[in-house]
Every structure is written in C-alpha cells, then in structure tokens.
Specification:
Strand order of the largest sheet: 6-7-8-9-4-3-10
Distance between the termini: 65 Å
Radius of gyration: 21 Å
Shape: globular
CATH class: Mainly Beta
CATH architecture: Beta Complex
Number of helices: 2
C-alpha cells in the first residue's frame, strides 16, 4: 500500500484593507453662487473645533488635499478674511456670507470644507471628532496628515 505524503508549508495571509469608497460630494454657499466638488469618502470624519471663530460659525472641518477640491462657480463672489499669522485664507460668499470652504493654517496645501455645506445625498455617515483649537499651537500637528 502506497503512503501519500503531504507537504504543508506555512503561508502568510496578507490582508489589504480596501480604501474607503471615494465619492464626489457637491456643495456650496446658501445662495448657491459659490459651488464646489470634493472627492472624499462617503463615510466622513470631521473635526469640530472649539476656537472662537469655528465655535461661533459652527464649522465642521473636512480637510482634503487641494487636488481633491474643485471650485465650480463663484470665484468672483468670494471675499477673503485673514487674521493673526495671515496663513489661513477664510473665504466667504459676498452675497450670503457663508464660509463653505477655506485654506486652513494647519494645512495650507489643502482645502478645508465645511461639511455642513455639502449637498444631501452623498454622505453615508458622519463622525465628529472634537479638536482643541483653543490650544491650537499644541494641537495643529494632529491635522497634518489630512491634506496628504
């Protein structure tokens, strides 16, 4: 009777996480003169900053690389506000006053979209993380990866 020999070798299973599904979100200001598109996951994680400006305006931060943001209309309707270091470029619609996006000091190579200004229909879920902007200098580094 023949004997079968089975050679068992160790294998390594490599599990590669699927990238988050990226969708095109659209949004803009209240009067709809300023309109944009942004490529971002359908399941969003945003920051709720407690600095004076963000707290007063209710801005929920969705920071993305500039290459994922497209201003579709309203460039001529935007006015800019800067303060302190002047690095952040806060852009408001001159007609309705809404700041739907801006260039953040923490990520000047990116764009920070107000998740509250995204149109309905493409956001599957929204996770809100607190961000201590009252102590900005100590905490800004934690946002650096968001615009890479």
């Amino acid at each position: 009777m023949a004997t079968e020999t089975t050679k068992v070798t160790a294998t390594t299973a490599v599990v590669v996480a699927e990238p988050a599904s990226i969708v095109i979100h659209r949004g803009g200001c209240h009067c709809r003169r300023v309109r944009f598109e942004v490529d971002a996951p359908a399941a969003l994680t945003v920051q709720d900053c407690n600095c004076s400006l963000c707290r007063m305006s209710g801005f929920w931060h969705l920071i993305v690389p500039a290459s994922r943001f497209r201003l579709l209309s309203g460039a001529d309707d935007l006015v800019e506000y800067t303060f302190n270091t002047g690095v952040a470029k806060h852009r408001f619609c001159r007609v309705c006053g809404i700041k739907s996006f801006y260039i953040p000091r923490s990520n000047p190579e990116g764009v920070d979209i107000n998740a509250r200004c995204l149109d309905d229909g493409t956001v599957e879920s929204l996770t809100i993380e607190p961000f201590d902007g009252q102590n900005w200098e100590s905490n800004a580094g934690s946002l650096a990866h968001l615009s890479l």
